[in-house]
TrEMBL record:
SUPFAM superfamilies: P-loop containing nucleoside triphosphate hydrolases. Belongs to the small GTPase superfamily. Rab family. The keyword Magnesium applies. GO terms for biological process: protein transport. It comes from the Eukaryota. One of its GO terms (molecular function) is G protein activity. InterPro entries: P-loop_NTPase (IPR027417), Small_GTP-bd (IPR005225), Small_GTPase (IPR001806). It catalyses: GTP + H2O = GDP + phosphate + H(+). PANTHER family: PTHR47978. Its EC number is 3.6.5.2. It comes from Lates calcarifer. This is small monomeric GTPase.
Length: 195
């Protein structure tokens, strides 16, 4: 499955949570203000980029195009699942997204939950602890991100890349890469001096 020399990392989550901005931020190290081109259906933005042998897709969050994106789950090696900390519905929908992932994605897919827009202190409606709790319940790593400030953006992508690379290139006696531990060690908290 991973013999093709690259991995597919797909960004999923409700419309407007910041999938494109996160990807752009990671790719260009810059935040694009204003709304970005909305991802639509079959005109699947094939924002494929090569970084550390990882290819990344960004896909639509719109309900009406779900059936289109189902097919793409199968090829994804990792999924960055986003909600928006200023949008409660996007957080509540994470359960539905996880159910969908469970149904359509490969069994060993790497999933990471991201609470995006962590820079929005005034508009925040989802606490970091709530994200942590949900992630724990589903056994997936979690961090808050900001495409605007750059908080943990690099980390989200590199942690997934490390996990995927390790799975394929691991020497037999090498210890397993601990994704959760790595994330815990490297993660920055919104508003913290270190971010
Ligand atoms: N404050 C803040 N705003 C953000 C952040 N990320 C994205 N936004 C804003 O949120 C809006 C939606 O961002 P997009 O990246 O287009 O969201 P998307 O998830 O790709 O949306 P679809 O393409 O419709 O699925 C834009 O107006 C962005 O400027 C962030 O980290 N902080």
């Amino acid at each position: 499955m991973m013999g093709r020399g690259f991995y597919y990392v797909m960004l999923v989550g409700d419309s407007g949570v910041g999938k494109t901005c996160l990807l752009v931020r990671f790719k260009d190290g810059a935040f694009l203000a204003g709304s970005f081109i909305s991802t639509v259906g079959i005109d699947f933005r094939n924002k494929v980029m090569s970084i550390d042998a990882v290819k990344i897709w960004d896909t639509a969050g719109q309900e009406r195009f779900r059936s289109v994106t189902h097919a793409y789950y199968r090829d994804a090696h990792a999924l960055l699942l986003l909600y928006d900390v200023t949008n409660k519905a996007s957080f509540d929908n994470i359960r539905a997204w996880l159910t969908e992932i469970h149904e359509y994605a490969q069994q060993d897919v790497v999933v990471m939950l991201l609470g995006n827009k962590a820079d929005s202190t005034h508009d925040r409606v989802v606490k970091r602890e709530e994200g942590e709790k949900l992630a724990k319940e589903f056994g997936v790593p979690f961090m808050e991100t900001s495409a605007k400030s750059g908080l943990n953006v690099e980390l989200a992508f590199t942690a997934v890349a490390k996990e995927l690379k390790h799975r394929t290139m691991k020497e037999p006696d090498e210890p397993k890469f601990q994704l959760q531990e790595y994330v815990n060690k490297e993660v920055r908290t919104a508003g913290c001096c270190r971010s």
